[in-house]
């Protein structure tokens, strides 16, 4: 009852008029709880600007700061977007268990947020999240136990979160074999500008290092582009940075790009890689089962072991002038 919306007076009079006298006491009790903000647990009902009916508990039962609150539950089953109020310190377990339509979760400024109860947001409907640096105090493991990110597609970090110490394991994780442990549906991570050296281009997450040195941190596991051209200002890829994506078919590496063998592990649709001719490692790209072409602008140098591995995988390693495939030329792709 406490979390129910306020009823119009006409509706209340209609109920009283058409209800037996024996039931009036129950109705009066209901109205008393509805119109007052007091019960044995000091629970209050707050209606915010988005018409979200939530129950809160004043935090003065926990400490002396009355501005902080505990969010107990959300009673609006039709809610599609929710912004956590800045005064909320703790969200209890199962608080949003009935919010089956919730798609956008905005942590707002999160000034006081310290803890999320287990399964606080248990529904798999959430597709978009706006995080806050306060999640650093909660940690990736507790965040994932509180928020169901099974169908999460988009993460956007706002520019006001300048103290963000972001962690890839909040939203996606890929093991050394290219298996996506979680974040299967993540399509984009966006930063509004450069935030503590983190930035994004077309939904791909990068790190801007000192001296202009930059690296790919995460190519989202569910990003649906078939071709990825490494930007010329990016010099390196972090561990499994592009791994586990089932949609990527063509990868273009520029001349000075540094990579490890695990960079594209598990990219099951990857068919061709354009790169500057160099010496190939014998086990390079062997974890991409459908890879057919490694194409360079010159001759590659390969050891006997490398030649054997290439032969076993039925790879074609050659200059672009030696093969005709349905793709732009190496030079044209790099110039673009």
Q: Could you describe the 3D structure shown?
A:
The protein is of the alpha/beta class and about 325 residues long. Helices cover about 15% and strands about 25% of the residues. The protein contains 6 helices and 23 strands. The protein has helices spanning about 10-15, 25-35, 135-140, 140-145, 305-310, 330-335, and strands at about 45, 55-60, 70-75, 80-85, 90, 105, 115, 130, 155, 175, 180, 190, 200, 205-210, 215-220, 225-230, 235, 250, 270-275, 280, 295, 300, 315-320. β13 and β14 form a beta hairpin. The termini are far apart.
Structural class: alpha/beta
Percentage of residues assigned to helices: 10-25%
Number of strand elements: 23
Strand order, largest beta sheet? 1-2-3-5-7
Rg on CA atoms, Å: 27 Å
Fraction in beta strands: 15-25%
Number of helices: 6
Q: What is the ordering of alpha helices and beta strands? A: HHEEEEEEEEHHEEEEEEEEEEEEEEHEH
Unreliable runs, pLDDT <50, ≥5 residues?
A: 1-6, 28-51, 60-65, 324-336
Bulk shape: elongated
Mean pLDDT: 78
Major sheet: 5 strands, mixed
In quaternary terms, these chains amount to single chain
How far apart the termini lie comes to 61 Å
What is the fold's blueprint, element by element?
Elements: H1 9-17, H2 24-35, E1 43-47, E2 53-58, E3 69-74, E4 81-83, E5 88-91, E6 104-106, E7 115-116, E8 128-130, H3 135-138, H4 140-146, E9 154-157, E10 173-174, E11 180-182, E12 188-191, E13 198-201, E14 204-208, E15 214-218, E16 227-229, E17 236-237, E18 250-252, E19 272-274, E20 279-280, E21 293-296, E22 301-302, H5 304-312, E23 316-319, H6 330-335
């Amino acid at each position: 009852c406490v979390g129910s919306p306020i009823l119009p007076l006409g509706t209340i009079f209609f109920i009283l008029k058409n209800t037996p006298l024996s039931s009036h006491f129950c109705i009066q009790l209901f109205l008393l709880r509805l119109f007052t903000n007091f019960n044995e647990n000091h629970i209050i009902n707050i209606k915010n600007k988005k018409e979200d009916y939530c129950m809160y508990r004043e935090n003065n039962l926990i400490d002396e700061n009355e501005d902080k609150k505990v969010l107990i539950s959300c009673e609006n089953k039709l809610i599609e977007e929710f912004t956590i109020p800045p005064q909320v310190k703790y969200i209890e377990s199962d608080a949003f268990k009935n919010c089956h339509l919730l798609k956008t979760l905005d942590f707002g400024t999160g000034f006081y947020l310290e803890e999320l109860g287990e399964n606080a947001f248990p529904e798999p409907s959430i597709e978009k999240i706006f995080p806050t640096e306060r999640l650093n105090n909660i940690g990736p493991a507790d965040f994932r136990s509180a928020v169901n990110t099974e169908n999460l597609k988009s993460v956007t970090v706002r520019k006001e979160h300048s103290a963000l110490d972001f962690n890839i394991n909040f939203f996606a994780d890929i093991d050394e074999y290219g298996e996506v442990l979680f974040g299967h549906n993540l399509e984009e991570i966006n930063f509004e500008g450069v935030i503590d050296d983190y930035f994004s281009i077309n939904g791909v997450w990068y790190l801007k290092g000192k001296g202009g040195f930059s690296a790919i941190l995460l190519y989202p596991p569910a990003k649906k582009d078939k071709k990825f051209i490494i930007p010329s200002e990016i010099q390196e890829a972090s561990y499994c940075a592009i791994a586990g994506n089932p949609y990527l078919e063509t990868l273009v590496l520029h001349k000075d790009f540094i990579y490890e063998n695990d960079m594209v592990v598990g990219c099951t649709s990857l068919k061709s890689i354009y790169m500057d001719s160099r010496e190939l490692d014998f086990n390079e790209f062997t974890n991409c089962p459908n890879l057919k072409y490694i194409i360079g602008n010159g001759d590659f140098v390969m050891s006997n072991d490398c030649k054997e591995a290439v032969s076993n995988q039925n790879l074609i390693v050659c200059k672009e002038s030696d093969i005709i495939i349905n793709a732009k030329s190496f030079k044209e792709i790099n110039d673009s």
